[in-house]
Amino acid sequence: xxxxxxxxxxxxxxxxxxxxxxxxxxxxxxxxxxxxxxxxxxxxxxxxxxxxxxxxxxxxxxxxxxxxxxxxxxxxxxxxxxxxxxxxxxxxxxxxxxxxxxxxxxxxxxxxxxxxxxxxxxxxxxxxxxxxxxxxxxxxxxxxxxxxxxxxxxxxxxxxxxxxxxxxxxxxxxxxxxxxxxxxxxxxxxxxxxxxxxxxxxxxxxxxxxxxxxxxxxxxxxxxxxxx
Length: 228
Hints:
Blueprint: E1 9-13, H1 20-33, E2 37-40, H2 45-52, E3 57-62, H3 71-84, E4 88-91, H4 95-99, H5 103-119, E5 125-130, H6 141-154, E6 159-162, H7 173-183, E7 188-192, H8 198-207, E8 211-214, H9 217-227
Parallel strand pairs: 1-2, 1-8, 2-3, 3-4, 4-5, 5-6, 6-7, 7-8
Helix pairs in contact: 1-2, 3-5, 5-6, 6-7
């Protein structure tokens, strides 16, 4: 039994075609159903903040979905997002560097970004995204996913986020168990990518996920209410 399912959900619209009216509808859904946050692209942070007031959090994605902006661009984007009113940041690190074995460079970027968020002087939740689908064909893929998760944990971030929703696949129950094993009980985990049914949401939460990013949040909680 999962209490207050809506608070586990970030209601998201990261479509390139998103319009201001779409964002108003997203925020209306957040307030009506009690979701944790409205997740929008950076250009809509101010609009979402004005629409929600203090009723819910505003989240945005940084270097999304590729993660291969320069560090200075990422730091600038992080700082501006927080100044505009974002409460939570889902950040794509340079996973290519990690896949190339450049673990120190990968970790250095994580640390620098976390430190940059702290410089703004406003509390903000930092999540770094691991696109687990990129590891599927590696012989040591599971080990590398766990290593990346521990580096994210060591950076001072608040969440490991599994998948962006724009990668080779979405988060799986096995991914969540792998990451949870790596980071222990206290580090938080967010998942994304094609999660659009109550069954999927509950399976991921029961496996150890704390938060789900989805554009189908209303459908999930509606299904939950119908089944209660």
